[in-house]
Amino acid sequence: MQLYHHPYSWDSQRVRLALEEKGIDYTSFHVNPVAGKNMYASFFRMNRSAKLLVFQNGHRIIYNTIEIIRYVERIWLVSSGEENIASSGGEVAAWMHRIKQWNPKFFTLSHIPKRHRDYSLNGGSC
């Protein structure tokens, strides 16, 4: 499984949290569309729009954050031998609803260097 993302992206952080919580192994590919970093031809063949977040498992490619999290949940349920796969759907939906209410600045801005963080918090004025 591969996750193509920008590490400061809020959606990326949601998906990585789900993958880590379930203990699912994946390969992380950091992509920076602004700087064009790691945007190779293979990435564009898989994702013609070049939008992030992209999750790939074999031939299956998913772009939507919530769909990726649901897919991760299904993978975890099947691999854990859980008999009642449908029963956890409500829990996952409730968890995703809670995450949507989080303020992303607490997570994203904590990883940005101080000089850029101050710029962001001041609305773009130094």
UniProtKB/TrEMBL annotation:
Domain of life per record: Eukaryota
GO molecular function: glutathione transferase activity
Pfam families tied to this protein: GST_N
SUPFAM superfamilies attached to this UniProt entry: Thioredoxin-like
Annotated ranges, domain GST N-terminal: 1-80
Gene3D superfamilies found in the cross-reference section: Glutaredoxin
PANTHER family on file: GLUTATHIONE S-TRANSFERASE TCHQD (PTHR45374)
Protein name: GST N-terminal domain-containing protein
Protein's organism: Malus domestica (Apple)
Source lineage: Eukaryota, Viridiplantae, Streptophyta, Embryophyta, Tracheophyta
